[in-house]
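User: I'll paste a sequence; please echo it back and then give the predicted structure.

Assistant: Echoing your sequence first, then the prediction.
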Amino acid sequence: MLSKKILMIDDEPLNLKITEMLLNGIQIDSILTATSGPEGLEKARGEKPDLILLDIMMPVMDGFEFLRQQHNDAVCSDIPVIVISSNDDMDSIVRCIELGAVDYLVKPFNATLLKARIDTTLDKKNALDRERKLHAELSESLAALKKAEEMRDFLVHTIVHDLNNNLAGLVGIVDVAKITP
């Protein structure tokens, strides 16, 4: 089984604690927490979690800004985000999805639903990670094949060139032999 590391970002320590207790039924290797958007971005960059659970309504940097910055960050842009917020406004939900969140749950949420969405999101991320790894391996194989083709072409050119020189010498000898009685 692949490791699972989840980063929870919420400015309310009680929400973090409750969510962490609810995640006990899921096989998770580690749960990281952050109480602000900037701290969450820093941990996402440094720890590279497999999933982020994000609150929207936070001081300093709200969840929308977090999603904008995370989306543009080369280090952590591929980490899936599930938003968990008490804000059930459809415009906010759509805005989060447009900013890159993979899912949105409204507080209070059903623990079974949260676990199912986490499992599904992690399965998709693992499949995407496998696909990226295979793509990288395929790219390496293609580069090695192109190099082998270049070497083959060079070898064929060298052999043809050397044979041509030897054949030209033989043709010259045969021509001289034809002329000589």
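Residues 2 and 103 are 22 Å apart (CA to CA). The chain has a mean pLDDT of 87.
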